[in-house]
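Reopening this one. Same input as before:
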Amino acid sequence: MTKPTFLGHSEPLYCCMIQSRTPENALSTIRRAIDGGCTAFGFQQCQLEHEYRTEATIRSIFEAMEGRPVYVTNYRGGLNNGMTDDEIAEGLVTLAERGATLCDIMGDLFCRHPQELTDDATAIDKQCRLIDRIHQAGGEVLMSSHVLKYTPAEEVLRIALEQQKRGADIVKIVTAANSEAEQLENLRITSLLKETLDVPFLFLSGGSHYALHRMIGPMLGCVMYLCVQEYDELATKSQPLLADVRVVREHFPYMSK
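Same output, byte for byte:
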């Protein structure tokens, strides 16, 4: 059976992020997000209690998403504190085997780096082999670099091209904006990424001036919106509400042409 995909869509996906300690809470959010019109899901296993990370439970969560593509993260933080990078990597392969579509490989997996993009040759080789394993399991790969500070265009493009070179199907970079000028520059960089890359991308902002970029970025080329059904205790507050994204998107159809 062919998995749903994050690739080749003519419009950006509404990807509702699920961060939950228990499967019951995850399933409740999934049902409401489907009713709210989401077209993809993001499941952050790093927030799920370890006792629930069984094959049966994970498969049941993915099945509840009713055929929508599933983006998964298994970051070092959350409830993964204390896990090794090798354990995190194995978790991504397992998620792909259990039905996940798109697996998020941190750009500094196997060798930490301040920009979350390692330049260690041994680590890069391990990342490339991990990408091959995920592909063999029927998954797609997103590589992420959470820089988390304002970053000039030339450096954003360098990071994106390096992620692409390593074999990522989608590249993801999270910087920041703390002024109107930086926010507008990030919008310009979004257009540059669209012009430069051969693969889809996701470029996001944190900082004090993130909202416009997160809402407009997919209209300028980002592959999807990362949004939330509601702002509960685990939700990422910089991710817009699914309901708000849909209203904005549906009232600016000309921007997707």
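So the earlier flakiness isn't reproducible anymore. For the record, DSSP finds eight helices and eight strands in the chain.
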